[in-house]
TrEMBL record:
This is site-specific DNA-methyltransferase (adenine-specific). One of its GO terms (molecular function) is DNA binding. Belongs to the N(4)/N(6)-methyltransferase family. Pfam families: HsdM_N, N6_Mtase. Residues 171-478 form the DNA methylase adenine-specific domain. It comes from Alishewanella aestuarii B11.
Length: 514
């Protein structure tokens, strides 16, 4: 069971797992859309992983205690996860040629849920509730059975033997899960991009917010939870501590399921992810039924969401919209106001990704923006490059808010020109991220990159936060030496005369003379 006994040839690397998983998607390509089959692939990865962990541990006990099934079964009850025998991936694989693969996989998932109590449930909703392998989306019974047989065979390949004794760390599985989600987001257009924040952007936000041991961290629009977990991993990496708690809420059922599985596969057991619409029905409440408060609140909410819950907002029982009700067709400030209300009074800090319109649009949004600035909650505005996010080419900005600021300045950073260009997608490099974070922490002006504005300056600008009003990136053009240009022109004219004389000579020789 221990890793050191493994020969280096048996060990697996991240790339080969990722490649094998992406190849498994070929089973579905051309039959159903990526947005649909992502749920099947990600759920099967989850099932295969827990089956391999279970088998690995079983084999380990067998090696230690001999062939004592009853004793081993008893010891296996203390595992992080309980796996009923008939629900194992291998039990399903053995019967793959029989009719009814879809039904059997669904039954296995249900049995796993039942055997693991609250681990795969929140407030009565189960992780696999919105995922059914026994669906007409895969075609009629015969075709569906064949597709699912191929899927089981893909995951049974040696490259996808995910036993800890072969794979090593849990990170490999978590990373594979993130790799798949990222690829689905990249290839699935606008809809698929909704549930995923690119890892570099998550990294940047987590660095800026600097989570500390003991922090409670919340993402009220958590998608597949990648941003939330990036904040957790910063505490582990920077402070060698697992003393933090992760909270999230997600409106789309199948995406909530991804977040729950993602948490499990990353070994994040101290979490609470609720299912429901954060604006219409916030679920993260304290024992008195009030909104829970957190040290860190961060999100990449859907940009300018239409039909966000405008009609109910005026009578919101949590008074989240007392500064004003955002416009009916743009929900950006609805998420911002919700997040502000859930910050702890002393330690509360927040990072939110927004489209640029949030910085300067007028009407009700202008009034809300003015109040947030007058209350001295806004700490920084950071402009990002275009084409960073899946499904949209528009550039976005990060707004940082703080509950307990020690001055009334706002830092503006224009990071829109620092990126690595990709074919369809631009990337933030480690250097780009480090530059933004260092500039933010230094809190000083940087020519053509950053500017610290006073509250009075922002007032003079009518509370417009458009970054070019504060960071001047204008490059002066070099002065033109007209005499040099004239000299060059005379030189070119002389060359042209010479060429024309030569050309006339050739034409004459060829009999085309005048």
């Amino acid at each position: 069971m221990n890793d050191t006994a493994m020969s280096s040839n048996d060990r697996i690397n991240q790339d080969s797992i990722n490649k094998a998983l992406w190849n498994a998607c070929d089973t579905f390509r051309g039959t159903i859309s990526a947005d649909t089959y992502k749920d099947f692939i990600l759920t099967m990865l989850f099932l295969k992983y827990i089956s391999d962990v279970w088998q690995d541990h079983y084999d380990g006990y067998k090696a230690d205690y001999g062939d004592e099934p009853e004793l081993i079964e008893e010891m296996m009850k203390n595992e992080r996860f309980v796996l009923p025998k008939a629900a194992s991936f291998y039990a399903l694989y053995e019967r793959r040629h029989e009719p009814g693969n879809g039904e059997r996989i669904d039954q296995a998932l249900h049995a796993i849920e039942e055997a693991n109590g609250t681990k795969l449930k929140d407030a009565g909703k189960s992780v696999f509730q919105d995922i059914s392998f026994n669906t007409d989306k895969l075609g009629e019974e015969k075709q569906k059975n064949t597709i699912l047989r191929h899927l089981l065979e893909d995951f049974a390949k040696p490259e996808l033997n995910l036993k800890p004794s072969r794979v090593g760390t849990l990170d490999v599985i978590g990373n594979a899960y993130e790799y798949l989600i990222k690829n689905f987001a990249a290839s699935g257009g606008q809809k698929a991009g909704e549930f995923y924040t690119p890892p570099e952007v998550s990294d940047l936000i987590a660095e800026l917010l600097d989570p500390q041991p003991g922090d409670s961290i919340c993402d009220p629009a958590c998608g597949s939870a990648s941003l939330l977990m990036k904040c957790g991993s910063k505490v582990r990496k920077n402070h060698n501590s697992k003393n933090y708690a992760l909270y999230g809420q997600e409106a789309i059922g199948s995406t909530w399921s991804l977040a729950k599985m993602n948490m499990f596969l990353h070994g994040e057991d101290n979490h609470k992810i609720e299912w429901g619409d954060t604006i219409r029905n916030p679920k993260l409440l304290d024992k008195n039924g009030d909104l829970m408060l957190f040290d860190i609140v961060t999100a990449n909410p859907p940009f300018s969401l239409d039909k966000w819950g405008h009609d109910e907002a005026e009578h919101d029982k949590f008074s989240r919209f007392r500064r004003g009700v955002p416009p009916k067709t743009k929900g950006d400030y609805a998420f911002i106001l919700h997040m502000i209300e859930t910050l702890k009074p002393k330690t509360g800090r927040m990072g939110v990704v927004v489209p640029h319109g949030v910085l300067f649009r007028g009407s009700s949004e202008g009034k809300i923006r003015q109040q947030l600035i007058d209350e001295n909650l806004l700490d920084a505005v950071i402009g990002l490059p275009e084409k960073l996010f899946y499904g949209t080419g528009i550039p976005a900005a990060i707004l940082l808010f703080k509950k307990n600021k020690n001055d009334d300045n706002v830092m503006f950073i224009d990071a829109s020109r620092d990126f690595k260009a990709g074919k369809n997608q631009n990337l933030l490099t480690e250097e780009n991220i480090a530059k933004i974070v260092a500039t933010y922490h230094a809190g000083k002006n940087v020519d053509k990159y950053a500017y610290v504005a006073s509250l009075n300056e922002i007032k003079e600008n009518d509370y417009n936060l458009n970054i070019p009003r504060y960071v001047d990136t204008f490059e002066e053009e070099e002065e033109i030496d007209l005499m040099a240009v004239r000299g060059e022109r005379e030189q070119l004219k002389a060359q042209l005369t010479e060429l024309e004389t030569e050309m006339a000579k050739y034409l004459e020789e060829l009999g085309y003379g005048a």
